[in-house]
């Protein structure tokens, strides 16, 4: 419960700063970069959560190692959480801020999964078709997932539209076992 209050407090502060700066999409990109770096390296997470390394040393090391990766905004959030001893809630804060930014922009996020990468023309055509159907602005994210075997799988908000061959085969297999 306490963590939830802490997450809300930091989320509100980060979103307020982003909104006041008028650069919501830029802040969103910076936070995505920070989250990718944080999630990609278990060693980094262990380093950040270590109580044995003083804050000043962590700060100096991070500025040298991540100087070309993180923005000033990303460093400020990271250092604030480190200084307050709350680095373990970083991921949740970023996810909630991203949700607030997405809600504010009014754009729907659409994640499309295919077995092979889509070229820019295919992605643009797909985005235009979805925008026309939903009558809303969307942000497309293309993901390559060889496990779907073929077809396409969409995630629009909390809705999944699964036209993948893997799912069709699974449903066929389940129907055969029931009879």
**In terms of per-residue confidence, which ranges show pLDDT below 50 for 5 or more consecutive residues?**
none
Helix coverage percent:
55-70%
What would the principal axes of the Cα set say about the shape?
globular
CATH class of the largest domain: Mainly Alpha
As a percent range, the share of strand residues is 5-15%
Structural write-up:
The protein is of the alpha+beta class. The chain has 2 domains: 2-103, Peroxidase, domain 1 (Orthogonal Bundle); 107-178, Glutaredoxin (3-Layer(aba) Sandwich), CATH 3.40.30. 64% of the residues lie in helices and 12% in strands. It has helices at residues 2-21, 24-40, 42-49, 55-65, 72-84, 90-105, 120-134, 165-178; strands at residues 108-114, 138-144, 153-156, 159-162. It has a 4-stranded mixed beta sheet with strand order 2-1-3-4, covered by helices on one side. Strand 3 and strand 4 form a beta hairpin. Helix 1 (2-21) crosses helix 6, helix 2 packs antiparallel against helix 6 and helix 4 (55-65) runs antiparallel to helix 5. The protein is globular and about 60 Å long. The chain starts with a helix and ends with a helix. 15% of the residues are buried. The model has no long low-confidence stretch (mean pLDDT 85).
Give a short overview.
The chain is 64% helix and 12% strand. The protein is α+β, with helices and mostly antiparallel strands and 179 residues long.
């Amino acid at each position: 419960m306490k963590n939830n209050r802490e997450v809300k407090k930091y989320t509100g502060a980060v979103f307020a700063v982003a909104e006041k700066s008028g650069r919501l999409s830029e802040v969103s990109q910076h936070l995505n970069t920070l989250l990718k770096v944080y999630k990609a390296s278990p060693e980094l997470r262990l380093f950040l959560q270590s109580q044995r390394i003083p804050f000043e040393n962590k700060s100096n090391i991070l500025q040298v190692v991540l100087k070309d990766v993180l923005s000033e905004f990303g460093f400020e959030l990271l250092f604030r959480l480190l200084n307050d001893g709350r680095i373990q809630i970083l991921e949740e804060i970023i996810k909630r801020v991203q949700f607030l930014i997405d809600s504010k922009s009014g754009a729907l996020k659409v994640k499309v999964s295919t077995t092979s990468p889509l070229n820019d023309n295919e992605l643009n055509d797909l985005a235009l078709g979805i925008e026309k159907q939903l009558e809303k602005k969307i942000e497309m994210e293309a993901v390559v997932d060889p496990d779907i075997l073929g077809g396409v799988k969409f995630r629009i908000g909390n809705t999944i539209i699964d036209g993948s061959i893997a799912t069709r085969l699974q449903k066929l297999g389940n129907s055969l076992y029931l009879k």
